[in-house]
Amino acid sequence: MLKGKTALVTGSTSGIGLGIAKALARQGADIVLNGFGDVEGPKAEIAALGVKVAYHGADMSKPTDIEDMMTFAAGQFGRHRVDVLVNNAGIQYVARVEDFPPERWDAILAINLTSAFHTSRLALPAMRAANWGRIINVASVHGLVASAEKSAYVAAKHGIVGLTKVTALENATSGVTCNAICPGWVLTPLVQKQVDAKAAALGLSNDEAKKLLLGEKEPSLQFTTPDELGELAVFFCSPAANNVRGVAWNMDGGWAAQ
Question: Which terminus of the chain has fewer Cβ atoms in its 10 Å neighbourhood, N or C?
């Protein structure tokens, strides 16, 4: 379905981003990865799916890095544009508002929200010229509801949902769509650390700690997987989603339905 198209996924060397990149690659998209940590492993996983793969290590808090990455991605496979843009990069910090370090607030807003503005503004002209493009913003159930001690993350994710709606409206009569995915708990390495900490603090097994974590918010008592989120991203890229515009689609086990 996506053969001949270029997909850029930010924050894609592990977790949700890598799951989405692999799902797009299985549909034939050539992939530009971005992120920190292991790079060669994810590149090999994508290449094994029979598509071309490239990597750019842009720091998503730096507009100049983002501009360089967007130029790089557009020029990688001879198409002069990014056809599918997935804004997934994100960080987290937990503290009460009065205790929240201002530099952490600034970093979370820069990476979780502002970076998506920069990538989108740079990708849109070529998408509009081609009259086809997909912008998929990975928000969170925290773009729809709040949790205590996550002020910057919740503010950024609510902002991403708002940016998604505006981008969709501005391109509503074109072949360019913009939608948001709002996951609940996903068992990424970051969340596994929270599970491990809860297990250690309360003297629980890892499975017990997982159930306790899920039980606080997610009625299904099961984690969403990166593969499931990847398949939702594929749907957004499909002809069936041509008129799906500006939605914040939660895949959260019933979290926001409560």
Answer: C
